[in-house]
């Protein structure tokens, strides 16, 4: 696929935000012959972006990464109440998203 993109001069980027599971699906799997490709732009929870070749926390359901992911989720919930002051009104989160975050912390 990467060869075809280069051949037709099509830029392709994968955007991944911190612990977001969606851009990691489907998982890289030799059995099902699937592998993510392209340039990956990874953003940490501070919205600092960098190009990476290997995605951090590739094994999303790893026991080793469960605690840091939960801690990160708590900090993101706290930030949801203040981010519109630092980043602007376009970042203000509504009550539904905040409640969803809280439910996600209680029932991962």
UniProtKB/TrEMBL annotation:
Alphabetically, the GO molecular function entries are: triacylglycerol lipase activity
Q: Which PANTHER family match?
A: ALPHA/BETA-HYDROLASES SUPERFAMILY PROTEIN (PTHR46086), ALPHA_BETA-HYDROLASES SUPERFAMILY PROTEIN (PTHR46086:SF17)
InterPro entries (UniProt xref):
AB_hydrolase_fold, OBL-like
**A single GO BP:** lipid metabolic process
Which species does this protein come from?
Gossypium barbadense (Sea Island cotton)
Protein name according to UniProt: Uncharacterized protein
């Amino acid at each position: 696929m990467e060869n075809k993109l280069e051949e037709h001069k099509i830029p392709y980027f994968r955007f991944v935000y911190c612990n977001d599971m969606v851009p990691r699906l489907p998982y890289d799997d030799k059995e099902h012959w699937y592998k993510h490709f392209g340039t990956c732009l990874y953003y940490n929870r501070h919205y600092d972006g960098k190009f990476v070749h290997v995605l951090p926390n590739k094994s999303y359901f790893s026991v080793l990464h469960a605690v840091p992911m939960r801690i990160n989720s708590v900090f993101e919930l706290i930030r949801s109440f203040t981010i519109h002051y630092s980043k602007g009104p376009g970042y203000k989160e509504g009550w539904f998203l905040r409640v969803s975050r809280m439910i996600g912390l209680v029932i991962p």
